[in-house]
Design a protein that fits this description.
Blueprint: H1 3-9, H2 11-15, E1 20-24, E2 30-33, H3 35-41, H4 45-48, H5 69-75, E3 79-85, E4 91-103, E5 106-115, H6 117-134, H7 139-153, E6 158-165, E7 168-173, H8 181-185, E8 188-189, H9 196-203, E9 207-209, H10 222-227, E10 232-239, E11 245-253, H11 261-292, H12 302-318, E12 323-330, H13 333-340, H14 342-359, E13 365-370, E14 373-378, H15 383-397, E15 401-403, E16 406-408, E17 412-419, H16 426-442, E18 448-450, H17 455-474, E19 478-487, E20 492-504, E21 508-510, H18 512-522, H19 525-545, E22 553-556, H20 559-563, H21 569-579, E23 587-592, H22 593-596, H23 601-613, E24 616-622, H24 629-632, E25 639-642, H25 644-648, H26 653-668, E26 672-676, H27 681-689, E27 694-696, H28 706-715
Parallel strand pairs: 17-18, 20-22, 22-23, 23-24, 24-25, 25-26, 26-27
Antiparallel strand pairs: 1-2, 1-5, 3-4, 4-5, 6-7, 6-11, 7-8, 9-10, 10-11, 12-14, 12-17, 13-14, 15-16, 19-20, 19-27, 20-21
Helix pairs in contact: 6-7, 6-11, 7-11, 13-14, 14-15, 16-17, 17-18, 21-23
Length: 723
C-alpha cells in the first residue's frame, strides 16, 4: 500500500493530526509521512518517502541504527523517548510508539510520535545541573555546565552569566567567548545606557536587543561584541526569591532575531537553576565566613589565624627567619560595653580592627582572637621592628573616635613574643605574648612589653590569685574592716569607711592594692562591690539596732560600677538601703576623679540619680586627678578626701600650699574636706591650722574589724587624749 491509498482512507485525520504519523512497510520503507512529522523531523516528505526508517532515527553506540525491522517489532506496544537529530544540527526529543496495522493483507508498522522536547529538556537540564550541585562543584563549574547544556540543546545560542555585586557587573562564565570578553563588563556599573546586561540589571527586567549594531542604549562593548559575530542578544535578570538582583543570564545570537518558544523555556529553567546555584554558593560562602572569619570585624577568627600563623612559622623555620607575635588588648573595654552598651562596644571593635589593618603590611597576619583581644603575626620581623610597630599601633589606636554621641580616647596594651627565642609553635607564642600584655597593663596600660622568662611564674601566680579571689567571694572568705573618721574640733565621730580585706586560707593575707586591680581586670569587681555594699549596710543596720551612734558609713566603688548598665547602681543602692532599714544619707559613696571626668553621658546620669536618691558622694584621692574648680561646680558631690600622698609630704612647703588650696576649694563650694592617711600629731596640727576638721588615719585608729571598732568606740568617746 502506498501513501495515496492510505491517505485516501482517512485524509483529514492523518494530515490534521497533532502527532507525527509515519507508516513503514514490510521492507522498512517509509510510505506515509504527515505534516506533523515534517515539523518534528525538520524534513520534507518528498525526501523521506521510500527511504529507510533508519534515516529518521538516531544511531546506536555501535553506529547501527535503532530502527531496523527487528528493533521496531520489539517496540510494539511500548512508548519510548528518543532524541531526533534534525538536518540543521538541532535536537528535539520525541515520545514514539509503534503498532501493527493490516492493509491489503500486509502487516504495516504505524509509528506515532509527539514532541516532548520542552518536558525532556526541563528534566534532563535540571538533572545535569542538580547533579553537579550535589557533587559540590564550584559555582563557575556549575554555571559553565549550565551554559554548555543550553548551547547543546540550542546551538544557535551562546550563553553567558554575569554576577551583580554592589551595583556592578562581574563576568562569571562565558564558555563560548574568548577570555577578553570578561574584561568588557568586569566592574561595569549597571545603568540605563551600558549594555543589555547592565540595562537588564538596572531595570530588573528582560532586555531584548534584536540589532546590537543599531541599538541606541548599547554603549559599552558594542564593537567588540559585533567583532565576535554576534548581532542580537537577550539579557534576563537573575533574582533571588526575595527579589534581590544577583546576576544576569544572556543569550547571544549570530543573526538578528527574537528568541523562540524553546529559548524562552530554556531561559526559564536556566534562571531558576542559576538562582539555586548562586544562593547555594552564597550560603557556602557565608558558612565559610562564619567558620573562619569574625562576623563583626571581618578579620580571620582564631581558627583561621592559627592556620595562617602555622604556615608563617613553617616558612620562617625553612628560611631561618624570625617573626613576632603581638597580643593586643583594648584597655577598659568592659567599661565601654557596660556604660554605652554592646552596640557601642561593637563599633569600637570595628574601629580598632580597621586601624590595626591599616597599620600592618600585607604579608603580616591579623586576626581577632576573642572579645577585645587581637593578635598580629609579623613575618620577617625582629625585636627592633616589633618595637617600632607596637609604638605606631599604640599611637594609631589612641586617636579619638566618635561612638554615637560620645568621643572616646581608646588605648591598648600590647604583649610581644618572638620566634624562635620564646617558642616554636603558635600556641606557645600567643600564650607568652598574652602574659607580656598583662605585664604591660601592670606598667600603667597604653604601653607594650616583651615576654621574659619570669613572666611564666607571674602568670601562674596571677591565675592562682584570680581563682582564689573568685572562690573567696562566693565562700564569704572576705571581710570588712572599718576605719573611723574623727572631727578634731568637736572630738566626735564623723563616720566610718568600709575597707575590704582578704585573708586567704591558702595564700594568707592579700593586700587590697593587689587583689582589687585583679578584680577590675578579671571582671569580678562588680560582684565584689555588691558584696561590700551589702555587708557594710548590714553591719551599720546591726550597730544601729544595738544603739551604737555611728553617723554614716562610706564605701568605695569602682568606675566600672558606674558604667555597668546591667547593675543599675541607683536602683541597687535604693534596694540595699531599704532591705537593711537605712536612710539614703546613712551611706556615702566614694568615687575617684576619673569617674567624674568621664565624658560618658550615662555616668553623669548615674551620679545625678544617686544624688537625687539622697545618697552622698565623695571624691576620693582628691588632688591626684584632673578636677578643676569650674568643673566641680556642676558635680553633685558632698565631700572631698585629700589624698594621703599630700599628708605624707606636709614637710614640703609646696605640698602645704596645695593642701591649703584644697581646703579653700572645699570651703568655697561648701564641701566637707577629709584628710586621710594622718599618722603623726605634727601632720594633724598642720592640717588643723589650715582649717581641716575631719581626720582619718593611723594616728587615731587603723582599719578595724567590727568587734574591735566597737571596743575602740567604748574606749575613745571623749578623744581628749589626741589634744
Amino acid at each position: 500500500m502506498d501513501e495515496t491509498s492510505i491517505t485516501s482512507l482517512y485524509p483529514d485525520l492523518v494530515e490534521q493530526a497533532s502527532n507525527a504519523i509515519v507508516v513503514v512497510d514490510e521492507n522498512d520503507r517509509i510510505v506515509l509521512f504527515n505534516g506533523a512529522a515534517e515539523q518534528l523531523w525538520g524534513r520534507n516528505r518528498d525526501e523521506v518517502i521510500g527511504a529507510s526508517i533508519s534515516k529518521l532515527m538516531p544511531p546506536m553506540k555501535d553506529g547501527q541504527h535503532a530502527f531496523t525491522q527487528s528493533e521496531i517489532d520489539h517496540l510494539v506496544g511500548h512508548n519510548v523517548e528518543l532524541p531526533i537529530e534534525r538536518p540543521n544540527n538541532t535536537r528535539v526529543w520525541a515520545e514514539i510508539s509503534v503498532s501493527h496495522v493490516q492493509a491489503d493483507n500486509k502487516t504495516m508498522r504505524l509509528v506515532t510520535a509527539r514532541n516532548i522536547t520542552l518536558t525532556k529538556v526541563h528534566k534532563a537540564f535540571r538533572y545535569e545541573i542538580l547533579r553537579a550541585m550535589a557533587q559540590t562543584n564550584s559555582l563557575p563549574e556549575i554555571m559553565t555546565l549550565l551554559c554548555q547544556e543550553i548551547e547543546r540543546i540550542a546551538p544557535e545560542i551562546s550563553a553567558t552569566i554575569a554576577k551583580v555585586d554592589d551595583g556592578r557587573l562581574h563576568s562569571l562564565v562565558a564558555p563560548d567567548f574568548p577570555s577578553e570578553h570578561a574584561h568588557l563588563i568586569d566592574g561595569l556599573e549597571i545603568g540605563p545606557k551600558t549594555s543589555s546586561q547592565g540595562i537588564a540589571a538596572f531595570r530588573g527586567e528582560s532586555v531584548l536587543v534584536r540589532d546590537i549594531e543599531h541599538d541606541p542604549c548599547w554603549n559599552v562593548g558594542r564593537q567588540e561584541t559585533l567583532a565576535l559575530g554576534y548581532k542580537a542578544c537577550w539579557s534576563m535578570p537573575i533574582k533571588t526569591r526575595d527579589s534581590r538582583m544577583i546576576g544576569v543570564l544572556t543569550f547571544y545570537y549570530r543573526v538578528c532575531r527574537r528568541p523562540n518558544k524553546l529559548h524562552a523555556r530554556l531561559a526559564e529553567i536556566a534562571i531558576s537553576l542559576c538562582v539555586l546555584a548562586m544562593e547555594r554558593a552564597e550560603s557556602f560562602s557565608r558558612i565559610h565566613h562564619l567558620a573562619f572569619f569574625d562576623d563583626l570585624t571581618s578579620l580571620p577568627n582564631r581558627s583561621l589565624l592559627q592556620v595562617q600563623a602555622n604556615q608563617a612559622i613553617a616558612q620562617a623555620t625553612r628560611h631561618n627567619e624570625r617573626l613576632a607575635v603581638l597580643f593586643i588588648d583594648i584597655d577598659r573595654f568592659k567599661q565601654v560595653n557596660d556604660s554605652l552598651g554592646h552596640p557601642a562596644g561593637d563599633s569600637l571593635l570595628r574601629t580598632v580592627a580597621s586601624r590595626l589593618r591599616e597599620a600592618i603590611r600585607e604579608v603580616d597576619i591579623l586576626g581577632r582572637y576573642s572579645g577585645d583581644e587581637f593578635v598580629i603575626v609579623l613575618t620577617q620581623c625582629d625585636n627592633v621592628h616589633a618595637s617600632e610597630l607596637a609604638g605606631r599601633l599604640l599611637v594609631a589606636l589612641s586617636a579619638p573616635c566618635r561612638i554615637g554621641e560620645v568621643t572616646l580616647n581608646p588605648a591598648a596594651s600590647i604583649g610581644i613574643s618572638l620566634f624562635p627565642e620564646n617558642g616554636r609553635d603558635m600556641e606557645t607564642l600567643v600564650h607568652e605574648a598574652d602574659m607580656a600584655m598583662y605585664q604591660a597593663k601592670q606598667k600603667g596600660r597604653g604601653c607594650f612589653s616583651f615576654f621574659t622568662g619570669q613572666l611564666n611564674q607571674i602568670a601562674k601566680d596571677r591565675l592562682t590569685l584570680e581563682t582564689a579571689l573568685r572562690d573567696a567571694i562566693s565562700a564569704n572568705e572576705l571581710e570588712i574592716y572599718y576605719q573611723p573618721q574623727v572631727n578634731i574640733e568637736t572630738h566626735q565621730l564623723h563616720g566610718v569607711e568600709a575597707l575590704v580585706r582578704w585573708n586567704s586560707n591558702q595564700l594568707g593575707k592579700i593586700p587590697p592594692a593587689r587583689f582589687i586591680p585583679l578584680a577590675e581586670e578579671s571582671g569580678l569587681i562588680s560582684t565584689l562591690s555588691q558584696w561590700v555594699l551589702n555587708e557594710a549596710c548590714r553591719q551599720l543596720s546591726q550597730w544601729r539596732l544595738r544603739g551604737l551612734a555611728i553617723p554614716s558609713i562610706s564605701v568605695n566603688l569602682s568606675p566600672t560600677d558606674f558604667h555597668n548598665l546591667n547593675l543599675k547602681l541607683p536602683q541597687y543602692l535604693e534596694a540595699i538601703l531599704r532591705s537593711h532599714g537605712l536612710r539614703p544619707n546613712d551611706l556615702l559613696v566614694e568615687i575617684t576623679e576619673g569617674v567624674l571626668m568621664d565624658s560618658n553621658p550615662s555616668t553623669m546620669r548615674t551620679l545625678n540619680e544617686i544624688h537625687a536618691l539622697g545618697v552622698r558622694l565623695s571624691i576620693d584621692d582628691f588632688g591626684t586627678g584632673y578636677s578643676s574648680l569650674g568643673y566641680l561646680r556642676h558635680l553633685p558631690v558632698h565631700e572631698l578626701k585629700l589624698d594621703q600622698s599630700f599628708v605624707r609630704d606636709l614637710d614640703d612647703r609646696a605640698t602645704r600650699a596645695l593642701t591649703n588650696a584644697v581646703m579653700h576649694i572645699g570651703d568655697s563650694m561648701e564641701l566637707t574636706v577629709i584628710a586621710e592617711g594622718v599618722e603623726h600629731p605634727t601632720q594633724r596640727n598642720l592640717l588643723k591650722a589650715q582649717g581641716y576638721q575631719i581626720i582619718q588615719g593611723y594616728l587615731f585608729s587603723p582599719p578595724l574589724p567590727p568587734t574591735a571598732l566597737e571596743r575602740w568606740l567604748d574606749e575613745n568617746m571623749s578623744f581628749t587624749q589626741w589634744e
